[in-house]
Amino acid sequence: MSAPVGQPQKFSRTILGVEVLLRSECALLKGLRVGAILNPTSLDPALNHLADLLHGPAREMGVDLVSLFGPEHGVRGDVQYLEEIDTAVDERTGLPAHSLYGKDFASLTPTEEQLRGLDALVFDIQDVGSRYYTYLATMGLCMQAAARHDLKFVVLDRPNPIGGLAVEGGIVHPGFESFVGLWPMSARHGLTAGEMAAMLQRPTERGGFNIGCELAVVPMLGWNRGMHFRDTGLPWVMPSPNMPTPDTALIYPGMCLLEGTNLSEGRGTTRPFELFGAPWLDGHALADSLDDEKLPGVRFRSCSFTPTWDKHAKVRCGGVQIHIDAPREVDAVRLGVACIVHARAQAPERFAWRTEKYEFVDTIPAIDLLTGSAAFRKSVEEGASVDSLCSAWAGEREAFVARRSAALLY
User: Fold this and answer.
1) What's the CA gap between 83 and 320, in Å, rounded?
2) What is the DSSP letter of 320?
3) How many CB atoms lie within 10 A of CB 403?
4) How far apart are CA 14 and CA 254, in angstroms?
5) pLDDT for residue 375
6) At what angle do helices 332-346 and 246-255 cross, to 10 degrees?
7) What pLDDT digit, counting tens, does each position of 33-80 carry?
8) How far apart, in whole angstroms, are the C-alpha atoms of residue 82 and residue 103?
9) Is the separation of the CB atoms in 291 and 404 below 8 Å?
């Protein structure tokens, strides 16, 4: 039943783009040969996977699902971060499952052979609201491929789980582009996948990045910029093996910065990114110094943990657990900056920046790729405060907020 004229329609939960598509009897895709870019989050609220929906009910509506494309972690999400994935056959549908995360940067884009015979690509993956999280970079690369091959590109929109209001951190500067920052966007961008696609597609003179493919976004119903994931009424499915809860997503735009250091960001524990530390750190002193920063929305508890894998595997680490008291007050990037600054201050001779290859780049430190330039790393080494480090990003963040405004759908 429709709402009375002049009154906004109310929803008991957010209605996803995939639901809107199916309610329209897949009008956008009818008669088309389709490739689907998806992972374990590509579900409707009844937990039906997009591959099964397109291979079943949508087929009866005239959609021909030809192939699947899996981003980092794979179509079914059982592969760890930075781990190469091979193209295979999806056991449930019997369709080819092409890998978009292989041995080099070229592997991140569908090949001409993989796209041959397709009419459209459909993207339906839950993002977490941070530039470093690679799914929307995959989307952008696939949009570029669609533009080159004259394919329709359809985004089935999903919520930004950490809201669409806050924007945090710096943009990527020329020469520092990578899979964790292909375009000059803030670390916490405040966009949905559909809005990001709209921004990537738009001409440069209209605030976009000029990909120029034939784009169609199927928007959500019942979502607004002030909503966090728990407000949507939707089930949370881990977008990747180290993103267990919406709280993890909330602090990830800051705590992912620790990937650029020799500090453990909690991988190999049950609370990645909410735990961090190192074997040489005093957790009690670290918690006290972080408390002195008066960071909004969070508290710190000293603890010890032993990662089962990744950094400091099977070695006891001293550190802290981050407890979230007020989710809408959390400044995630400031939080991550503070954790790096205070951990380094406690033992500067033991602290180090990551030097191993990171996201296919071995000539630029990982921390520079994450922050978007060398400025943050150099300022930390010079002893800059948390406030001055974050203030340095204010101008470029404000410019990005203005630039993204034309792409907002909600």
Assistant:
1) 28
2) E
3) 19
4) 27
5) 98
6) 60
7) 999 999 999 999 999 999 999 999 999 999 999 999 999 888 876 665
8) 10
9) no
Q: How far apart are the first and last CA of the chain?
A: 23
Domains delineated in the chain: 17-233+402-407 (3.40.50.12170), 246-393 (3.90.1150.140)
The predicted structure's pLDDT at residue 176: 98
Using a 10 angstrom Cβ sphere, with 0-12 exposed, 13-18 middle and 19 or more buried, the burial of residue 271 is middle
Calpha distance 81→75 (Å, rounded): 14
* Alpha-carbon span 202 to 47, nearest angstrom: 33
Which uninterrupted H or E stretch holds 394?
helix 394-404
Q: Which of 185, 329, 144 is nearest to 251 (CA)?
A: 329
Amino acid identity for residue 288 in this structure: D
Q: Report which of 299, 367, 358, 360 is spatially closest to residue 327, judged by C-alpha positions.
A: 299
The amino acid at residue 90 is D
Indicate the pTM of the whole model: 0.95
Pairing of strands 298-305, 317-324: antiparallel
What is the rounded CA–CA span in Å between residue 114 and residue 176?
29
Distance (Å, whole) CA 164 – CA 277: 30
